[in-house]
Amino acid sequence: ELKVEQNPLFLSMQEGKNYTIYCNYSTTSDRLYWYRQDPGKSLESLFVLLSNGAVKQEGRLMASLDTKARLSTLHITAAVHDLSATYFCAVDFLNNAGNMLTFGGGTRLMVKP
Amino acid sequence: DAMVIQNPRYQVTQFGKPVTLSCSQTLNHNVMYWYQQKSSQAPKLLFHYYDKDFNNEADTPDNFQSRRPNTSFCFLDIRSPGLGDAAMYLCATSLLGLNTEAFFGQGTRLTVV
Known about the structure:
Shape of chain B: globular
Largest sheet of chain A: 6 strands, mixed
Number of helices of chain B: 0
Order of helices and strands of chain A: EEEEEEEEEEE
Helix content of chain A: under 10%
Radius of gyration of chain B: 13 Å
Number of strands of chain B: 11
Shape of chain A: globular
Number of strands of chain A: 11
Mean pLDDT of chain A: 92
Structural class of chain A: mainly beta
Radius of gyration of chain A: 14 Å
Strand content of chain B: over 45%
Low-confidence stretches of chain B: none
Oligomer: heterodimer
Order of helices and strands of chain B: EEEEEEEEEEE
Low-confidence stretches of chain A: none
Distance between the termini of chain B: 34 Å
Strand content of chain A: over 45%
């Protein structure tokens, strides 16, 4: 059974600070996704990581994937209040019937002024 | 332009009264998924269609059914909603393959009274 664990589950940080969210998963997979979710809204795709060593950056967020360690990180640089949201990683286990997503538990990020 | 459209955005139903949620897509993707997301939890896959082939997750209750009459539409039927079925229901689509990602709709928030 594929398990995806995120930590921390809750993160309160000051504006301007840096922090990293971790996503560990239990079964081999070469595809990992990061999503943002605002309260009451759907999932917004942030990053798609499709190979070992993949690194992607968008604004203050940078995601990386180490498939050998089964670990992905989402690094936040100089956080701003607008980044406050819940962040989910999801691992994709492709089988013959589709791309199954198993989500981590989510990290609720609060950025305080 | 919206690519995965869910209707309605908000649905209130009575305890035990059947309800149907709908999802349509303009992407011509061959896989469609339904996820359930309860408050403060991660999305959980209920089932998915690969073309017309239906795939049920092992722990999806029998109370939940789905129909996919054509490529563009997929429905989630809850035969007898209970209070525990109140959640956000997310529809997603993807094109089966190695370098694809899932596209999520805006979700339907279901309230059971």
